[in-house]
Amino acid sequence: MQLPSPPGRASVTRTRMGDKMGQITTCIFDAYGTLFDVNAAARAMAAMPGQGDFAAIWQQVAADWRAKQLQYTWLRTLTGAHCDFWQVTQDGLDWALERAGHTDPALRAQLLDLYRHLPAYPEGPGVLAALKQAGVARAILSNGSPDMLAAAVASAGIADLLDDVLSVEAVGRFKPHPSVYDLVGARFSTRPDQVLFVSSNGWDIAGAAAYGFDTIWINRTGDPVDRLPGRPAAIARDLGAVPARLGV
Asked: How many domains does the chain have?
């Protein structure tokens, strides 16, 4: 899904320890878990009337769903057996529900519908608005399929705060394959050092950092840094740190 580009992009100066000055023109956000709350679907389902049994296990289902969803993206990229992220999302949910002993088709359908309309984290729209006001280009780069992303962006009400929404379907591989990060330069005519990449996924930050992007890891749960070659340039508890990173 491509959205209109702004009339101009500001160049925000940033300095990193040991680095020479660089010019950040573009801020790229991961979608699921970064802008959109991936646990919200199971949480909302658990809060519905008559869902007492599911309420007792929703956190485990949400954790298993997310873990399998990500594992399947990595395995499919390694084996060359690509499918879109909606299929991966369904497969991950099926595994999680079977493990929990809840295989009701109606429950499955409701959870998938909720997932298509995930809410944004509360601070997200304000951060995007601040970057827009400063003239920094803003886009999503996601494993999500174009139709999934269009639904989530519309549901969260952030379409007018983004310049573009980039999907891995353009290259047929999932993150952190370098060809996915190539999509940013192809769209915005940027060098890697002109891009600030924001993700809540440590493995995604590792891939983006190794690619050459400046990075902020949104570590909402206080996890250790992944033992991978690429390291986050900055770590924050929520998206509110992004404007400060850019001096906005």
From this structure: 2
> Are 196 and 34 a contacting pair, CB within 8 Å?
no
CA dihedral 30→203→64→105, nearest 10 degrees, is 40
Q: Are residues 192 and 180 in the same domain?
A: yes
Name the pTM for this structure.
0.91
Cβ count near 9 (within 10 Å): 19
Handedness of CA 2, 4, 9, 15 (dihedral sign): negative
User: Is residue 220's pLDDT more than 60?
Assistant: yes
- Burial code (b: 16+ CB inside 10 Å, e: under 16) for 195-231 equals bbbbbbbbebbbbbbbbbbbbbbbbeeeeeebeeebb
Residue 162 is assigned to a structural domain of this protein: yes
* Mean pLDDT taken over the chain: 92
Which tens digits make up the pLDDT trace of 69-106?
999 999 999 999 999 999 999 999 999 999 999 999 99
pLDDT in tens, 22-59: 499 999 999 999 999 999 999 999 999 999 999 999 99
Whether 60 and 181 share a structural domain: no
Which tokens sit at 197? 């990449």
Nearest to 161 by CA among 20, 71, 27: 27
In 3D space, the residue among 81, 80, 113, 107 whose CA is nearest the CA of residue 94 turns out to be 107
Please give the positions annotated as active site: 30
Note whether 138 and 214 are same-domain residues: yes
